[in-house]
Amino acid sequence: MDYMLLPLRRYADFRGRSQRKEYWLFILFQWLLLVPIGAIFVVLGGDAQKLLDEPFTLQGVAGDPVQIVGLLVFAALLIPFLAVQVRRLHDQGRTGWWILIGLVPFGQFPLFALMCFDGTPGANRYGADPKRRDTVHRQDWRDAPADAARVVQRPKLGD
Considering only CA atoms, which of 9, 26, 21 is closest in space to residue 131? Predict the structure, then answer.
């Protein structure tokens, strides 16, 4: 749950890096908010065709509070979505301007693919690794100190 809400805490922070987990859980959070609002809009008989025909005129919206709530939630989540997407690109060592590829026709597909790739291990020019892969979390048994051999008896060849 913490990763779902982290982009909201870092509302307009376009600096640093974000893990895939943070990005995809925020996408899930958006869907969990927007899909029920859309379903309520359809169940209550909202005029979706009018919304699609004239999305920015807001004519007839004053009488539809579900549509107003949906637009407000979408507007409130837009900046954190863009910020977490830029931080995901930073995690891969790419500049945030790559986000503009989503504006060209079919540009959303390569942008989607970029969001699926893992970040660069270790620090890069945008900050420290959010997964902390540059620090050692576990030690390989071959690199263990000599006194550890007394604790763990390794089988000898031929036994």
Answer: 21
